[in-house]
Amino acid sequence: MGDISISPSGAKFEVKEDGSILRLGQISTIDECMLYLRLYPNDPFAKHAQDLLTQLQEEEKTEEISLWNYATSVDTIASYRKYILFSKLKLYLDEAKSKLETRLWTWATALNTLYAYQEYLRLSLLKVHQDEALKIIEYELWLETCNSNSINAYQVYLKESPLQSHRNEAIESIESLLWERACNSNSIDAYKKYIKASKLKTHKDEAIEIIENLLWESACDSNSIGEYEEYIKTSKLKAHIDEAENRIWKQSHFFWDGYYNYLDVFPMGKYVNQIHLRKILIAIIPHILLWTIGILLSTNCQMEELWAFFLFLCLSAMYMGVYALIEINRAEGGSTFGFVVIFLLTLGAFCGASAIISILVST
Description:
Layout lengths: L3 E3 L5 E4 L5 E4 L5 H10 L6 H29 L2 H10 L6 H19 L2 H10 L6 H19 L2 H10 L6 H19 L2 H10 L6 H19 L2 H10 L6 H12 L3 H10 L6 H29 L4 H27 L4 H27 L1
Antiparallel strand pairs: 1-2, 2-3
Helix pairs in contact: 1-2, 2-3, 3-4, 4-5, 5-6, 6-7, 7-8, 8-9, 9-10, 10-11, 11-12, 12-13, 14-15, 15-16
């Protein structure tokens, strides 16, 4: 098997080992004819290929003239663009570009609209009137923007304006409209959107201050621990943080869960020492009471001191166990309801233990 050459169109020509040429596939294009003649100029089929090449070139030239004649007879933007796009020989390319330029500018000036001049710039190849078109587009675009006078319109201007002649005015107008919208809404979200969208940030400090006031006003209206916590998390100025701490403490220090709610928000707060002191008292005072109960029981039941001491140890151990369970319950996300259940179970256990010990002592 000899060498195989492949034309751009896919036709194959194989040179056999004895030097003869085997043609695989039908030659049908100018490129294939030229390739065949370049590779095998002395082949018996060369003359046929040359004749075919001449024929195909004549046909292509005829097609070129026909395409150009159609373009000039119709004399439209579409016809000249069709010639430029589909012509193979490009014999009249310069003339086609010139005529397309003339037709495009005539059409644009006749319509005299923003869209027409934008289309001129998009389709024109010579762009003879580019500067004039840009000035008109700039004028029409800014006029349309001012008539609309909306945030979106000014943003479109900044995006599409070719000259950006009124860029600063557009940015200032957007700033003014953003602030006006925020003030009209007078909500936290509206002022946050202003801060995010504004480029100039002219009213940023004022917006932050208003957000601060609205957050505190909302927290005071609700007057709940959750809202005060939300204020502390969201506020940037934290102007009322001391008052928020006082109010959280005022609402939480009577409840077991309240200690943990307060510590979650203020781990180094001014009431932390009071919380630790109360925890110590909660742990110590019951021991004193239990010791008193043990002494009274031993006195009334004529118990020996060893039994009294044993009763104290039992009750104290049970109390500390319950105290630890309460701490674990809250640390794992338990609620006050869980604390009440544990307390009632513990109280029952205390009473049961005291009754059992009393029975044992009396027997």
